[in-house]
Design goal:
Radius of gyration: 29 Å
Number of domains: 2
CATH architecture of the largest domain: Up-down Bundle
Number of strands: 14
Oligomer: single chain
CATH topology of the largest domain: Four Helix Bundle (Hemerythrin (Met), subunit A)
Distance between the termini: 33 Å
Strand order of the largest sheet: 7-6-5-4-10-11-12
CATH class of the largest domain: Mainly Alpha
Largest sheet: 7 strands, antiparallel
Length: about 400
């Protein structure tokens, strides 16, 4: 068995290794982020369209509007006049509907959208919808958070294009704003929208007229954020906790494995939070519960690092208090991390493959913990049922009392 002093000499090397890995990961993430921002700049120009022939005032005069291609052949024109922002979305059209949504975090759920279409009878329709959920019944007409002014919104077709025009009354000018674009190929029935044929999300910079596609840079960052979180908080850290609880008879191997695995898991967890903060600064996503729980779990994990550094000796009077602190803070961190992974997938609108994958991983961890807990309980029960003079030999095998 190794002496406790050997561990004192070894753990600073592990700390330095993990910090070096964290710094390298952060630099690589920042470099990729900067590269993606440059690549996202749009340099195309818009088509020259005469809106005076088919749109009513005040949408006819667009001579001073800023125009930017945003997706496929979709074009967004806008102009700020005082606290009024005038917008015109132009898109290809045959039948169905076209919509533009305004989101806090780039997600559909919780956003408000302006949707326009031409009915079967040739009537132009444009309505605001509140996207409360993903089901059709949760897309609510004439509701939403868009500050529309008293000027009626307008929609019209011109050739093979449809044009949605509306005005927003805002006290604070738009800057970087997550925008959703989508279209469906079926007429809305009783103002119920059909499922979209295609969609995208962009972060539109109204101060510069440029776009950065969420579907490339930010979506990749969001995916990496989820992968790091699931690997670190959902796999590595639970494995380290299982080793600490159920393999203490392999002393001191269990301590080394536990420390190394938890350092690696902490690195993944810290990288997850850093990437999440970068996403927040870019998208200004208002996912308060997910963000708050993530930071709280990180704080708990940092306290666990301090617990390792300040670990008292086995014969210390405060060792029992330290064991309670280390054990329960670790459990709390894992519980909140599991909750936060679910909240993150829900906020990101993760597909079934993500949910099934994490559910499978979570099920394995819980099953392993239950099986090992039952085995440990049975072993403790067996030891309590042994005669008082029963002894254990040095190699772990039972030695029966002499004379039997």
């Amino acid at each position: 068995m190794a002496k406790s002093g050997s561990w004192t000499r070894i753990w600073p090397s592990f700390v330095r290794l993990c910090l070096l890995n964290l710094v390298l990961n952060f630099k690589i993430t920042a470099l990729a982020d900067d590269t993606g921002t440059v690549a996202a700049t749009t340099e195309n120009t818009c088509k020259n369209t005469n809106y005076q022939t088919f749109l009513p005032p005040p949408y006819q005069n667009i001579s001073h509007m800023i125009c930017t291609p945003v997706w496929h052949t979709f074009e967004l024109r806008y102009i700020l006049n005082g606290d009024t922002t005038t917008m015109i979305l132009s898109a290809p059209y045959t039948i169905g509907w076209v919509g533009i949504g305004f989101s806090r975090d780039g997600m559909m759920v919780g956003s408000s959208a302006m949707v326009g279409w031409i009915s079967k009878h040739g009537h132009a329709k444009i309505k605001q919808f509140y996207l409360r959920g993903r089901r059709q019944s949760e897309v609510i007409i004439d509701k939403g958070e868009l500050p529309l002014n008293n000027v009626p919104a307008a929609v019209a077709t011109n050739g093979a294009e449809i044009h949605l025009a509306f005005q927003l009354q805002t006290t604070t000018p738009f800057q970087k704003q997550p925008i959703l674009l989508a279209f469906g190929s079926k007429y809305p029935q009783n103002h119920h929208l059909s499922n979209h044929e295609d969609k995208t999300a962009i972060v539109f910079d109204f101060s510069a007229g440029s776009t950065g596609p969420v579907s490339h840079e930010l979506t990749q960052m969001r995916t990496n954020h989820g992968i790091l979180g699931i690997i670190g908080w959902g796999l590595i850290l639970p494995v380290g906790a299982i080793i600490a609880r159920y393999f203490r008879h392999k002393d001191p191997l269990w301590l080394y494995l536990h420390a190394i695995i938890q350092f690696v898991g902490f690195t993944f967890g810290l990288s997850t939070v850093i990437l999440g903060l970068q996403l927040y600064s870019k998208m200004h996503a208002h996912i308060q519960a997910h963000r708050g729980i993530g930071i709280f779990a990180l704080v708990l994990s940092i306290l666990q690092i301090f617990a390792l550094i300040l670990r008292p000796k086995k014969d210390s009077k405060i060792r029992k208090i330290w064991n309670l602190y280390h054990g329960w803070f670790g459990r709390l961190a894992l519980i909140f991390a599991a909750i936060n992974i679910v909240l993150g997938m829900q906020a990101a609108g993760a597909g079934s493959d993500w949910k099934i994958g994490y559910g499978f991983l979570f099920g394995i961890m819980v099953t392993a913990a239950i099986v090992l807990e039952v085995l440990a309980y049975l072993k403790r029960s067996e030891m309590r049922s042994l005669p008082p003079n029963f002894q254990i030999d040095p190699v772990g095998g039972p030695t029966f009392p002499r004379g039997m």
